[in-house]
Amino acid sequence: MKFYKFDNETGKKITIFNSNFVMSRIIQTEKGSNIGCMHLDPGGVIGYHQAVAPQLLLIMVGEGYVRGEKDEYFKVRAGDAVFWTKDEWHETKTDGGLTAIVIESEELDPSIYMTEIKLIKF
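The structure assignment produced for this chain is given below.
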């Protein structure tokens, strides 16, 4: 399990074409990708299971806790990204609610665009 940031501070200011915004690049794939949005109500959980493909979870709203194969939880919040490799066991849960985008693809490598960070165990 690896952690990344995609918040405003990690992005790049874009001004071309009279633009004024920050772009945080996330991923690029050549092969097919599955992209979905998960909505967890307060007390929601994505149960402990193996990733069917490399998987990147992007926390958009709210906060929660993730774990990998060890029974150690890490707190995540909006702007955090979590990466699991194929077949890696993992779980996501929230007390107050959470919305996340999930990207699954055989060729995911978030380190191309994002810098890995360290989170403290909860």
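Interim note for the steering committee: DSSP finds no helices and eleven strands in the chain. The chain has a mean pLDDT of 92.
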